[in-house]
Write a structure and sequence with these properties.
The structure holds 2 protein chains of 2 kinds. In chain A, about 30% of the residues lie in helices and about 40% in strands. A 4-stranded antiparallel beta sheet of chain A has the order 2-3-1-4, with helices on one face. Chain A has 3 helices and 4 strands, in the order E-H-E-E-H-E-H. Chain A has helices spanning about 20-35, 75-85, 100-110, and strands at about 5-10, 40-55, 55-70, 90-95. By secondary structure, chain A is of the alpha+beta class. The radius of gyration of chain A is 14 Å and the shape is globular. Chain A starts with a strand and ends in a 15-residue tail after the last helix. Classes of the chains: A alpha+beta, B mainly alpha. Chains A and B meet through strand 2, strand 3, strand 4 and helix 3 of A and helix 3 and helix 5 of B.
């Protein structure tokens, strides 16, 4: 089967500390690994203001994962894990087309300093 | 009927048309192929004060990119990067 590239953003509840955020992110990265998805990029976009309240929270920790999936149903498993975890306020998985792949590579290299805080990219 | 007033939309008092500049699709012009839904500040350019998407007839965006734009805005709204409804955006 064709290898497809995806990106997933999820928003974690602001109650968590930075250490807990990395721990939760680690858990989801593990889910991907177990389903033989290859992680290309991860990025903590930090604690951000929400445009409208979700579950009565005004802020949330944004986290971005980029990965490729072969024949497995890694996306389904990952999304199920999101639904079961009440620390996740919101998530979105997008299949990337060829333009998006090019764009994300450029963004990763920091060619345009548009999104996110580069300081937290080190994680 | 308000026909006399409606003339004001195309003609000023001195008889000149208000804006003769040709509209263009800014995505085509600057070679943007992918509209990033994560970049809320950029998407803001295509929204009005209430957070609604501006029509093509005002922005000049081509149909192809208006569809992609709408998709990007929808995703941004889901992730609370943009509001679904707003009073005084910008």
């Amino acid at each position: 089967m064709q290898v497809k590239q995806y990106e997933t953003i999820f928003i974690l509840t602001p109650v968590l500390s930075e250490a807990q955020v990395t721990e939760v992110a680690e858990k989801f990265k593990q889910v991907l690994k177990e389903n033989s998805a290859e992680l290309l990029h991860e990025e903590s976009m930090g604690l951000r203001q929400l445009a409208y309240p979700i579950q009565k929270k005004g802020t949330g920790h944004y986290f971005l994962l980029e990965y490729t999936v072969g024949a497995t149903n890694a996306v389904d498993v990952l999304e199920l894990a999101f639904r079961r975890d009440e620390r996740v306020l919101r998530f979105l998985t997008v299949a990337l087309d060829k333009h998006a792949v090019v764009y994300n590579e450029r963004r990763r290299k920091g060619e345009f300093n548009k999104v996110a805080a580069p300081a937290e990219e080190a994680a | 009927m308000r026909t006399p007033e409606r003339n004001n939309r195309t003609q000023n008092a001195d008889g000149k048309k208000p804006d003769q500049r040709k509209k263009y699709c800014r995505f085509k012009k600057s070679g943007i192929k992918y509209i990033d839904y994560k970049n809320g500040d950029y998407l803001l350019k295509f929204l009005n004060e209430q957070g609604r998407i501006l029509p093509r007839r005002l922005t000049g965006t081509s149909l192809k990119y208006q569809r992609k734009l709408a998709q990007a805005v929808a995703r941004a709204r889901h992730l609370a990067i943009l509001p679904y409804v707003a009073d005084a955006l910008k």
